[in-house]
Amino acid sequence: MEKYILNSNEKEKEDKNTSEVQDKIENVKELGNTTLATPNKRIQVLSIIGQIEGHSVLPPQTKATKYEHIIPQLIDIEQNDESKGLLIVLNTVGGDVEAGLAISEMIRSMSKPTVSIVIGGGHSIGVPLATSADFSFITPSATMIVHPVRMNGFVIGVSQTFEYFKKMQERINEFIVRTSNVKPDTLERFMLQTDDLLNDVGTMLIGKQAVECGLIDEVGGIREALSKLNELIEK
Description:
Oligomer: single chain
């Protein structure tokens, strides 16, 4: 009888472990990452990879970060007493402006220390996502592309459309200037530059260039980012 109870307990434990693994696999399929707030993690990691998906669903073959999944994770981390800091790892080509700004504002409003690191690219709406943290890093070979707002789909050629684009661009610029050390006129110059990107308007900044203009705080890798986050937590 004792042996039967022992085997029963072991089977229950095995079933629980299997269930947890299956949950993680489903999480990878749905979220594109395995980040969830857990009670025993002092530092939480949030990866923002690929394209930011907003109200429109992207094709299944597109690597995407879904904002409706990221927002609950941020709320979980904020209210989790065991979580002391958040590391945001970015490698994104940009995406939905409204979704990107929503995530950026949520990160900026968190009471816990936050550090971001651009490891591949922080393009388009990825720029405010990078600057939303309390302190930002970029690896030496990573790039950031700053360009004006673009719109896909049906556009009506009226003055209201121009005003809509203008206000959206102002929202993005205001956030970036508010959350970084870049000057407004420098940011606008980057946005309107015509000789840097092929068949496009905007500027590409590589590694230390993003730091020199004040967009990002420091060049560094995961070690430096974690060290800075621990420093902010201790403060």
